[in-house]
Write a structure and sequence with these properties.
The complex is a heterodimer.
Chain A (H helix, E strand, L loop, with lengths): L1 E10 L2 H17 L4 H20 L4 E9 L4 E9 L7 H4 L13 H8 L2 E7 L3 E9 L1
Antiparallel strand pairs in A: 1-2, 2-3, 3-5, 4-5
Helix pairs in contact in A: 1-2, 2-4
Chain B lengths: L6 E3 L2 E5 L6 H18 L3 E5 L8 H16 L3 E5 L3 H10 L7 E3 L2 H19 L7
Parallel strand pairs in B: 2-3, 3-4, 4-5
Antiparallel strand pairs in B: 1-2
Helix pairs in contact in B: 1-2
Classes of the chains: A alpha+beta, B alpha/beta.
Bound molecules: adenosine-5'-triphosphate and magnesium ion (MG).
Magnesium ion binds next to helix 2 of chain A.
């Protein structure tokens, strides 16, 4: 997979989540995603950025426009050095939340993208990588 | 402080969300609307989200909360103008907004709101004021 362009976006406060949404929107348009695909990718980015902020204590998102030869897509990698997730399978269940959320951010954003990878270590942090292909 | 304006029209409150709200702004709107319903004794709330490009779990929860709190305060809420791509995404996200009434546009939303308010009045036998 080749990276056509990339940008790192800090996620340190609620307005950063808005900034990221706007950038994801602009890149999705540049990639000529359909309106529904744009909406799905922006929504997934919003959920994951909020988790990075609220549960991970802040972090960053690496945005990459990628190509695998046949297709181009948008890859987002969210990274934080927060508390980590003790039980990933549980965290990925619809409705599971350790806060007062709906517990839909992780499970829901997984449904909104084509590829979803998660790595987390208690006490070290969390990294989530998602891709949506054109 | 940054705020989403709330318009008062007789017994109704109208809100048009035109900016991409950060979470704090969404919470402020929820509080402001609840206070306005209580202060003015409003019977109906119309929220126009036609300019919103996404509704994620946070905004979805806020909209459901507003509708729930309005009900406790004896007011009806109608959400109008949700874009089809937003509705499709919300379903896939797994968000259902139980009890939230929706309409296609502001006009249809106002009609529905008037109907809901008068039906509610008949039920409770409260007919002291006109819409
Ligand atoms: N970056 C993270 N760091 C630590 N824990 C996380 C992280 N992301 C998610 N979690 C954990 O996974 C749980 C589920 O996340 P999810 O986004 O599905 O729900 P939520 O954030 O609690 O609520 P919602 O997103 O619906 O408002 C969270 O409650 C939290 O315990
Ligand atoms: Mg979440």
């Amino acid at each position: 997979m080749t990276t056509l362009k990339s940008e790192s976006v800090d996620i340190a406060g609620p307005t950063d989540v808005v900034i990221l949404r706007q950038k994801v929107r602009a890149w999705s348009i540049e990639l000529k995603f359909s309106l529904v695909d744009q909406t799905k990718m922006i929504t997934a980015s919003s959920e994951l950025a909020r988790n990075t902020l609220d549960h991970g204590g802040g972090g960053r998102c690496l945005m990459e426009m990628v190509s695998n030869g046949a297709r181009s897509g948008l890859r987002l990698t969210f990274e934080d050095h927060g508390p980590g997730i003790p039980d990933i399978d549980l965290a990925l269940k619809d409705g599971y939340s350790t806060g007062n959320g709906m517990g839909l951010g992780l499970s829901g954003s997984k449904r909104l993208v084509n590829e979803f990878q998660i790595a987390s270590k208690v006490g070290e942090g969390t990294r989530i990588c998602v891709v949506r292909w054109k | 402080m940054e705020r989403i304006p709330i318009l008062r029209m007789g017994n109704f409150l109208l809100v048009t969300i035109q900016v991409d709200m950060h979470d704090q702004l969404a919470m402020t709107l929820q509080d402001d609307l609840t206070n306005a319903i209580a202060n003015y004794g409003s019977r109906g709330v119309l929220i126009d989200i036609s300019s919103l490009e996404i509704v994620d779990s946070f905004i979805g929860r806020m909209l459901a909360n507003i509708s729930g709190m309005a009900r406790i305060l004896d007011a009806q809420t109608v959400l109008v103008g949700m874009q089809p791509a937003v509705a499709i995404t919300l379903v896939e996200l797994g968000m259902s907004m139980p009890g939230v009434k929706t309409a296609l546009n502001v006009e249809a939303g106002m009609d529905l709101l008037r109907e809901l308010v008068s039906a509610h009045r008949m039920e409770t036998g409260d007919d002291d004021s006109e819409v």
